[in-house]
Amino acid sequence: MNDASSRQRGSTWPRRHEHLVALCAALLTAALCLLPFGASRAAAAAVSSTVRISLVGNEPAVSASGQAVIVSGTLTNTGSAAIDDPVVHLSINGERLLDTRSAANDWMSGKLDLPVQQVATGTTDPLAPGATTSFAVTIPGNKLKFSYGLASLPLAVTVTDGRTSSASGVRGTARSTLHQQNATVDSPLRLTVVIPLTLPADPDLFGPSGATRAAAWERAVGPDSRVQRLLDAFAGMPVAFAVDPELLDPPAAADDNVPSATPTPSGSSTSGTQQSDGSTSAQSTEGTEDATTAPNPTSTAAATSGDATTTGTASGTATGGSTGDESRTTTSESPSSSSSSSTAAPNSPAGRIATAVDGLAQRLAALDDPGSVWWLPADDPDLVALDAAGRDGQALLRRDLTRALPDTATDISTTRVVIPAGDTPRSIVTAATKRLAGDGREAIAVLPDRMLPAASAAATTATHRASGTSGVLTYDERLSRLFGASSTSPGTQTGRLLTQSLAIYQQSPGSSRSLAILAPRTGGANPTDLAARVGALETATWLQLRSGAQTVKSLRSAPRATLLTQPRKGTPYPTVPATAITVTELRDLDRSRRQLAALQSVLVGGDEVLPQRTQALDIIGSTRWRGSVARLASVADRDDAAVSAMLGKLSIRSSTINFFADSGDISVTIANDLNRPVHGVLLNLRPRKVFIQVTDAEKSVDVDAGAHAATRFHIKAVGAGTVPVDALLHAPDGAPLGPPGAPSQLKINVHPTSGWIMWVLGVLAALVLVIGLWRAVRRGPRAASEATPADEPTPEETIVDAGPGAPQPTDDEGTGDR
Length: 818
Known about the structure:
This protein is of the alpha/beta class. Among the domains are: 15-181, Immunoglobulin-like, CATH 2.60.40.10; 189-253 and 348-555, 7-stranded beta/alpha barrel (Alpha-Beta Barrel). It contains 18 helices and 30 strands. Strands 11, 12, 13, 21, 23, 25 and 27 form a 7-stranded mixed sheet that branches. Strands 22, 24, 26, 28, 29 and 30 form a 6-stranded mixed sheet that branches. Helix 9 (426-436) links the parallel strand 15 (416-418) and strand 16 (443-448). Helix 12 packs parallel to helix 13 and helix 15 runs antiparallel to helix 16 (606-616). The relative contact order is 0.12.
């Protein structure tokens, strides 16, 4: 039987017998109501509910006429009394089919009350309060002989304590469905199942380097992750995977320093300070310690005992010694650049992340049809929230949409896809797909069927060609909700899914139509249950599952459709929590990006490491953060603090300088605690008072990694006093560097020599004159001594005999003879 329907084969009674059929049906219904428990109405059994029934499923999910079916599940005693003899009763209605979506919903919700006939029973072990046991009851094939081409039959499961038929013995009931197919289908519904693979809202994924971040990535993409379990569960099934490229391209860690450069072998270096000009610099001291500049400075130079270390980078750039009027100080404890190999040690945090990511890439590449991988925009951006957030949000959205795929992704597939979260205007969708396809590749949009006019949606066609896209795939929201929802009775959920899909097919059995269902990004049913539902759908002859590659191919020849400006009213699926991102966080992101751009312009090898760090800041715009306000705030705050700390590693040492001169040089020290050298950093001095003038207020400075550099500035004293001087670091384009907040400040105690030294000398001269006069007056005039005649002989009594050995005076000396 082609284009099968729910009618029984051979049912061609003329209309004149319809009244007889109705009468017989009424009599049969009345008779069933009078029969014992085995032929009761399903709703009438729900008198007591102390047993929770969870159905695992039917085996087979879709059977043929006369084929036995095994119904399995579990029973849980939720009451306070034991159930000594649990009996499971299975009953069906073979007359009333659930051939419309409303009938199926009414039956499952209890609104539709139908008579059912018992077809099988089974017993289980006694159930103590709180205990759970499993059951499996087989419905014999002779109880399932129906001549329908396709059928969804109502199935009731009832649990009693013993085989009593009274309502008082009923402990629990559940409703499900049983499906049969007894004919071939020429025009099945072509079904596309889309499974998103994205990162969870885990802040540890985007934290600083270390074991915590590595463990988070192993949980997200490792062998036991939800992503890998989804790939395992759907192995060999024709589904489409919508994958966030960030799964294969982890963002840079939120570290407060840059990666070290790969060292270049060089000669040894020693500590020292080199000054290239002949002027003497005023010594600066940290804290309150003073230093003095002589009034008439003389030229001194401290020679280094060796050449400055040349630090190589990955790009081959080297930083040499100081030039011009710059002096460089390299301390012996400064760390040298460490090697960063392309492959990290397997047991290191970086190695663990690389292993997990590589394993996922290999899994995707090994799929039976790698073309079934569709790549979401980078970081799966929240289209609606970012577009509504103004300039900063729209800039972030453009960056995510235009970011190229990593090579590991393009080696697998090049198809791009947009799956907006929540109701999204057409203008945002088309703008996103255009940007995503900017490299000439296909970019499709997966949208709810409410984006189409009601008449188009009723036609049950999921593939469309729409302006501004490479194709639009519209998914059935009600069917997707059934497919993705978590349930304590997965078998019941699978039955509902089959019933609804068959009802859609029955709307127009001979038409060529298509259908799509979408799983939620996170939450919902576990991977095993989702795969079991797809497996059941795959066995239904009224459905034909299409892979992602087949769906993309069908979009190229799909009928044209015009999307609505706004989706029609309805309940969005998947359920969309409130957006988490704020305007303040986006504004802080923009500031951090500017700060890193400034640092990149002066960092040796900055073009190699800082673009990745800057790009990692954009993670705050992802859809994953919806409903996770606190988690997003922690990520944004941590990124902001890390960037501020990174810039703070370029700093100026605050100092107090005593300046005893009319003019001279002062020394300002810059510290670079980054793991890489910087070059071309501009240092600017701005006095806050007019007591000094800086001859050349801006100098360019180069500083090695982990080193200090002292730069001299020539100043002139204009007046005496304490002068606060702001010391500012900035990039060549004027962007500020250094710690955020107030600038570093020097204090210069200015004592010019041109005035006070002459006063001091004059006072000293006056004091010397006064003291000399005072001493002269106090001593008075000196008395004159009497002169002795030169020709008068010396009295004899004044001559002293010196002894016989003494020389005797001669006559010529006036002694005479004795």
